[in-house]
Design goal:
With 310 residues, this protein is α/β, with parallel strands linked by helices. It contains nine helices and ten strands. Helix 1 packs across helix 2, helix 1 (6-18) crosses helix 4 and helix 5 (108-115) crosses helix 9. The radius of gyration is 24 Å and the shape is flat.
Length: 310
């Protein structure tokens, strides 16, 4: 059996995802007959049936399901390799750092200052994104290293935890709960997080601020309009002030953003947030290694209370 080609995998993934040859051909910008022939040739080459075809439907066989999973991984790896090669070939190389704005534990300015003094340091470009976008950016070659809250998908990545910090609840200053010095998750029954999840059943130790779909079915009444699919920090604060949602920011972010209409309170049973670094497992970049060493040292120094060193 000859080796598979990227073109063959791309054709198959399009058909497998669309489950319709016409839509797949349109997506690929080609005619349907050559696409059908290419899939038949692929099946003959592999010696297995990948798709069940009838006049009404197209369905994946068990072999097709396996190939779809692995083909996606292979295509992602090819795209990542191309991005990394283009980046490495730039006349002025740099280091791309993926992160979510304000999710740096207050460490980023110190890390960048210390990193500039490293012999292997390169100019740093920030790749800003929403929640859960940092690890994919490293995997697909858009970034060289990421500073991100855990947990996240660690496939193909090396990971170094930097610090763990408490999270608070941000709620409207006029909310009756703001009169209490501290709360428990159960006290937040009936409130929702920015992604529409019930605040009293918060399970994932991440600030939820990139909703997958709005409006939540359990949203509190009295707020007109439909919130956007993606909320930035200003939008989250505005909705908190209006009492339409609550939010669980890390304490470092809360300190940087005091607002008269927002009250921050301790939630005694709310899991903390862990900030970590992630970079490709196969990376041999001296610049990435220097950045990891620098960030780890800065985080370690930040954990030492003032005056603790003798």
């Amino acid at each position: 059996m000859s080796d598979l080609e990227v073109r063959q995998l791309r054709y198959f993934v399009a058909v497998a995802e669309e489950l319709h040859f016409g839509r797949a051909a349109e997506r690929l910008g080609m005619a349907q007959p050559p696409l059908s022939r290419a899939i038949r040739d692929l099946e003959r080459q592999l010696g297995v049936r990948l798709l069940e075809r009838t006049t009404r439907r197209v369905a994946l066989t068990p072999a097709g399901e396996v190939l779809l999973r692995d083909a996606r991984t292979a295509l992602d790896a090819v795209a990542a390799a191309a991005r990394r090669a283009r980046h490495a070939g730039q006349p002025e190389p740099g280091l791309r750092l993926a992160l979510k704005a304000d999710y740096d534990g207050g460490l980023l300015p110190r890390i960048l200052d210390a990193y500039r003094d490293q012999e292997a340091a390169l100019p740093v470009t920030l790749v800003l994104g929403g929640r859960d976008e940092q690890a994919p950016a490293v995997r697909d070659g858009r970034a060289d290293v990421a500073l991100l809250p855990a947990p996240f998908d660690e496939r193909g990545l090396d990971v170094e935890p930097l610090l763990t910090e408490p999270r608070l609840v941000a709620l409207a200053a006029a909310d009756p709960l703001a009169a209490r010095p501290s709360l428990r998750l159960a006290d937040l029954a009936g409130r929702v997080l920015p992604d529409g999840a019930p605040a009293d059943r918060e399970e994932r130790p991440l600030a939820r601020d990139a909703p997958a779909g709005w409006p939540p079915a359990t949203a509190r009444p009295g707020v007109a309009g439909v919130p956007p699919r993606r909320l930035d920090l200003a939008q989250i604060f505005n909705l908190v002030e209006l009492g339409s949602l609550v939010w669980f920011p890390p304490v470092s972010l809360a300190r940087r953003h005091p607002r008269p209409g927002v009250a921050y309170r301790t939630v005694t049973d709310l899991p903390p947030l862990t900030l970590a670094l992630a970079w490709p497992r196969e990376s041999r970049s001296p610049a990435v290694a220097a950045f990891v060493r620098t960030a780890t040292a800065v985080a370690e120094a930040a954990r030492v209370p003032a005056g603790a060193a003798s």
